[in-house]
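just leaving the lab so this will be short. below you get a single protein, a line of residues and a line of whole numbers that encode the local backbone shape. id like you to explain what the token line says about the fold, in plain words if possible. thanks a lot i owe you, the record is right below:

…
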Amino acid sequence: MSSTAQPPGLMKAVRTRLENEVFKAPSETARQIGCVLVCDEWSLSLLGTCFKVNDLTKHGIPLVESLKLPCGAKGGRQSLPRYPVIYLCRCNRQNIDCILNDWKTGTSEQPKDWDVRPYAEAHVFFTSHAEKGLTGLLLPAKLLAQHLKTFKDLRMDFLPVEPHLYSLEVEKDLHSFFSKQRSPAEVEASVNNVADRILDVIQTMGDTVTVRHQKGGKCTIAYQVAKRVTQLQSERMGTNKGNTTLLILDRSLDCMAPLLHELTYQAMLLDILPKQSGVEVSPDTTPARARVITEGKNYTLDEQDELWCRTRHQHIADSGPIVSKEFSDIVSNSKALNLRNNYGSQTSSEDMAEAVKDMPFIQAKIKNYQLHINLHDVLMKQLKEGGLDAVCDIEQNLATKETAEGMKADKDDLKKQFEAYLEMSSNTSHVNKVRLMLLYIVSQGPVSKDRQAKWIGSLAGKGTPSWQTGTGAGSATQLINNLSLLDVVTEKKKWYQSKSKEKKKARVDPQSYDWSRYVPGLKSIAEAVVSNDLSEAGCPHTISDEHVSGSASTSASAGRSARKSEGVTHRSWGASLRGSDAKTSGPGSSTTAYSDALPWSLQKATKGRVYIFMIGGTTYNETRSIAEVISEKETEIVFGSTSVINSDKFIRGLSDL
């Protein structure tokens, strides 16, 4: 991202609020002196998605420090009595105690002229809701009260992950909402927390919403959250109706999406990369930032990395060639590099001066491209040699119920193909076998206990991790049983299928590869929402007498094949990895698949925005699908979830139910 570019959508709204409400809180004179920004880890992540360090300096903030470090203590933050401090953090007991510790008065042993103030003045901003019981703890701090200039509840308790995506980062979100071990009071607390934070997003964007929810009874999680959002909006904004739509969904909508291998650059990096590859994704990776360790060096992939932002949603078969070509163009067109390679008596002083000025920028850019080329090489090697070709074929056949050639798949053939993979011992992953077993049950329907036992038995005694076999919590048996808690949506439960008998125009999707045929159900629903074509029967309004003018039925159906439509352009990339070139058929084939579906397409949005929220975690193939809808429909979707997950997180969450 260039220094002048601003991310669109939610990120831009967050950035604007922080600039106007937080950074400008100190007086202009104070900002000219310089302010200290003290943040907790959550707020540091929030800042990192919207700003560079240089951006903060321009706002009079030359120093950003961690709240958890004690002020004035050895190894902690330095007391700066001449400088204002801005506290930006969540409202919780730990953070409030840290603020209070900063403003403790000095002792009698200190010199009389010693300034007991840690900072010249204090401006306190809470990103989460400031509860009276907690904020009241600040009142007895006399020194703080004397120098407290600003105290504000921002209600910004969410993390922008991408321009169109935010996460609430709810730990163990599947357990919080779907586990039978949770008491009604605990579930209600989780519902209230999520609903309150969803409304924070809507207020930040300056909207009010009419709420709709995934079909189900009044006991469903989607309904409970939707109802609570409606109540809170009435309390905080004085209305139950809105200028746009908020649709609440939950993970039971589509349990196939988190089990499939998604072959975009971002998803592969955060899902299939083995530790023995020489590249490691750091444990402190968050949805908004991927920390990569390679050759002993640490790299951060986030919104500040323009190349990462442009390629993360692209299919790995497309992003790799694009990165390599751009790298070659940079090297061949760089005056600095050409001058170094062709230095001679004909070189003018002007050319030399320009080359010297350009060299640091070119070197940094080349280093960044080399990192991404290396990561692509590692991922492609894993895809070719890691046994993913077989499992991806089976996954797509099971999920779409059709073959790579577009023919209806025979159920017996699917079972034989699946069971043959379970019996394979070489070049196969036990994790993939568990994923495939769960996918088979979700996609093909109930399986007898005897057959389940046979499949699970084929995993035992082959070095399988403890959470995948056995009979205890987290075992393969328990994972299968816990699927029922998610009320898995199968082909027989297409509750959002269109009531309209009119056949709609077939859709052309040129980004369909053999191993990427499955289209998440979320994409169809998103298309219906932005087209004002979502059925009331499938996604009712939370308040029964509220109806959207012109709402009709939707043609959405959960998880379908990308080549169901006539005229679809299909590229057989799966075959190309077996030694043949990628095939194309029909117009529109391009080596820049997904490139038009990048979040930056929000800059050309012309239609009104809508809100969609997924309870229980969203997957990388779903976030990519939302980006595609944004581009194809030229609209703005603010998409959020309780967390962003890969298959491993989903399975571990399933084991905790």
Notes: The chain has a mean pLDDT of 78. The two ends are 41 Å apart (CA to CA).
